[in-house]
Amino acid sequence: MFDLASIQKSLREFGVDGWLLYDFRGSNLPARRILGLEGRPPGSRRFFYMIPAEGEPRKLVHAIEPRALEHLPGSKTIYMAWQDLEAGITALVSGRKRVAMEYAPNLSNPYVSKVDAGTIEFVRGLAVEVVSSGDLVQFFEATWDDRQWSLHQQAESGTTTAFDLAWRLIADRTRDGGSIRETEVQAAILEHFRKHGLTTYSPPNVSANAHSADPHYEPKAGEDSAIQAGDLVLIDLWAKVDEPRAVYSDLTRVGFVGASVPEKYETIFAVVAAARDAAIACVKDAYAAGRPLRGYEVDDAARKIIADAGYGKYYIHRTGHNIGQEVHGNGANMDDLETRDERLVLPRTCFSVEPGIYLPEMEFGVRSEVNVFVDGSGKVHVTGGLQPRVVPILA
């Protein structure tokens, strides 16, 4: 629910004079959620909503859609011509030196950059400093309430048991020289989700051998591989409870179709697991010390382990992403590779920790993924289970 007092308190704490929220045809999902507009059909005209650090909010809406923000507090100005729009925005930011918007400097954060460059240029042209609303967005859009934390744990139960189902199915079908296709395992996981009241935006990844060296491989009927004895299998799956405001569980594990796991797989997995555990320790240590923690620091902790082991060039993605109502949410990512995410790792947010090493020349890759949730008291919870070694599927 829209909470003006909490937003204004946060604006003062972050040292900004106001938050200028803007949307055009549903282009700014974080703003729409914060303003209580998610689920409503987006309008066809631009609107602006200025929340000052002190005082009454102000709305700027088009004459065709004058009631677009009617449910929100504050005075209203209606514009029609482009000259009216420019005058209206000028009035909204008048007297303000620093205004937050859904913007990130340079190429730093596409998850936050929802406002078009022209709009940013116009506001800056009014002698206003535009700062990123990244931490504000996650504070009001990416944090979980108690119900969402409970729904995540419910989803975790279904996603964790999906691995048990998958390993059993692979074992049953590959004994005595048999095989099973990647898409068959994928279909079984989706049916498991359905039976447990879970939903997902896309099917899981079931990747055998060389396919596991591609972090975003997607098995498709007619193009997938058969899984048989002697194969490495990586399964990456994600799902949430099928109800409004539910949040995802997103996990990855690896197994080997055999009674014992070859040393080459165990060696790489040990490095990945150590990186995973170093990232988790980074979060726990920071919160135990009461020290502010930024997303890139968690990535650095994991990446150092892999680089020091000599596999740095094979770790080709960030350490983790925010998790929310979308599997890739709008909070801080654990990233100092693809971007340098300087957003704070805030209480009541959840994110994945999923380091990986991908060796295409050796035709395999390994990733271990868990989820980390920091509760309101600063306690760090790890969900999904810390896989200790590659699963020997036929043991």
Task: Give a structural overview.
This protein has 395 residues and is α+β, with helices and mostly antiparallel strands. 33% of the residues lie in helices and 22% in strands. The chain has 9 helices and 19 strands. It has helices spanning 4-14, 29-34, 82-93, 117-124, 134-142, 146-174, 182-195, 263-289, 295-308, and strands at 18-23, 47-52, 58-62, 75-79, 98-101, 129-132, 179-181, 198-199, 205-208, 226-228, 232-241, 248-256, 322-323, 350-353, 356-359, 364-367, 370-374, 380-383, 391-392. A 6-stranded mixed β-sheet has the order 4-3-2-1-5-6. Strands 8, 9, 11, 12 and 19 form a 5-stranded mixed β-sheet that branches. The chain has a 4-stranded antiparallel β-sheet with strand order 13-14-17-18, with helices on both faces. Helix 4 links the parallel strand 5 (98-101) and strand 6. The longest helix has 29 residues, at 146-174. The protein is elongated.
Quickly describe the structure:
By secondary structure, the protein is an alpha+beta fold. 33% of the residues lie in helices and 22% in strands. It has helices at residues 4-14, 29-34, 82-93, 117-124, 134-142, 146-174, 182-195, 263-289, 295-308; strands at 18-23, 47-52, 58-62, 75-79, 98-101, 129-132, 179-181, 198-199, 205-208, 226-228, 232-241, 248-256, 322-323, 350-353, 356-359, 364-367, 370-374, 380-383, 391-392.
